[in-house]
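User: Hi! I'm working on a homework problem where we have to compare a predicted structure to a textbook description. Could you give me the structure for the chain below?
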Amino acid sequence: MLFQTMDFAVFLPVVFAIYWALAERLRWQNAWVVLASQVFFGWWDWRFLGLLWFSAGLDFLCARRIDASESPRRRRLWLNLSLTGNLGLLAYFKYTGFFLESFSTAFSWFGVAWDDPALRIVLPVGISFYTFQTMSYTIDVYRRELRAERDPVAYLAYVSFFPQLVAGPIERARSLLTQFHVPRRFDGLEAADGLRQILWGLCKKVLVADACGRYAYAVFADPGAHGAGSALVAALLTVVQIYGDFSGYSDIAVGTARLFGIRLVRNFRFPLFATTVPDFWRRWHISLMGWFRDYVYRPLGGSRHGRARHLRNLAAIFLLSAFWHGPKWTFIWWGVYSFLTFLPQERKVAPAPSLRSLPHISLTLLIISLGAVLFRAGNLPNAAAVYGRLVDWQTPFAPLPWATVIPLAVMVGLEWWARDDAHALENLLRPGPRWARWGLYYGLIVAFVAMGEGAKRTYVYFRF
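Assistant: Happy to help. Predicted C-alpha cells:
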C-alpha cells in the first residue's frame, strides 16, 4: 500500500479512529497496530508476511535465550543464529539474482546462453529495513543494553509498525519498543503538526521527486542524445529526486506516527544544504548511518587504534552501505566513490548553511551528484555513457519544463527558510495570518491532487 494512493487515504482514518477508541486499553491498542500493520504490509503480496514473521520470531526467540543465559558461549551462539538467519534471508533475496546474472554472463563468454526465468528472485518490499531493525534489537540484548521483550504483542508492534515498516526510519528497540509500553493520549497540536508533515512529504514525493525523475530518466535512458548540460542537470536532479522521494516518505512516516502518539527518529536533516561531503552523510539517511556507526564502525574499533584502522573501518561502512543498497557493480563503485570523496574533508569543520556558505553547498552538491550517476545508471556501461556526455558542450541543452522548475524552486525555498526546523511547514507562517497559512495548505493539496499520476509511481527505496 503506497502512501500517496486512495487506498491509504481510506486505510489511515479507519486505523486512526479504532486506535484512539481503544485508548484506555493499551494491549488492545497495540494489538490493533499489529493487525493494521499486517494488512498494510500484506497489501503488496500477503506471501511476504511470512518473511516478516520469520525475522521477527527468530529475533524474539534468540533475544529471550540470550537474556536468560549467563554462559558467554551460549549467548554468542544465539546471537550468531539471529545474525545468520537475518543476513542469510537478506542475502538470498538480494544477492541470488546477482550471482545468477554473473554466472549467466560468464557462460556467455563461452557462447552458452543461460537465462532461466524460474531462477529470478523477487525482492520483498522493506526487507532491508525490518531485518536491520530486528537485528539491532538482538544485538542490544546481547550487549545487555536492553532486556529481552516478554510481551509478544508490543514486540510485534515495534517490528511491524506500519508507518516505518517498508522504508524506515530504522528504529532501535530502546526508542520505539519502549513507547508501546506507555499509555498514549491524543494530542491535538501534535496531530496537527503531524498532518502538516504528511502533507509536506506527499508534496516532495509527487510534485518534486517524480517531476525531477522524469527528466533524469530521459537522459539516462538515452545518454547519446544529450550533451554536458543535460547530463549534469540530470545528475543533480537524480540527487533531488532520491531526496524528495525518500525524505518525503520519511516525513509521511514520522507525521503518521505522530497521529498515533508515537515518535520516530528523524531520518533527514536537509542534506541538500550540506556544506561538506561528511556533513552531507551526517544529514542523509541518519538512521542507517547511525546503525552502521553503532553496530559496525565502533565494534571494529572506530578511530581508537590509529589512522590505518580508522580508514579501514570507514571503508567498511561505505562498502556495506553499497551492498545494503543492492547487488550491482554500480552500487559498489558508488560506495568506493563516496568513501574517496569523504576523506579529503573528513576533519574539516562544516560551516552552518547560510548565504555565505553557498559556494560550499554548491561544491558539495556537485560532488554528490557526480556519484549519483553510478547510483542511478543501473549498469557500468550506462554510467560510462553518461559520464562521457559531460564533456560534450556542443549538443544543445534540453530545458527543464516549468512543471519541474516551479515545484523544485518552492521546495528549496521553503526548506531553506525552515532549515532549523524539523520540516518545512512546522513553523511556516506561524505566527501569521490564518488565511495565508490555510491558503498555502490548500494550495499544496490542490497541486498534489492535480498531479495524480504520482500515485502510479512507487518509492525509490522500496527496491532496497
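For your comparison, note the following. The mean pLDDT is 88. The chain has two domains: 6-185, 189-463. Good luck with the assignment!
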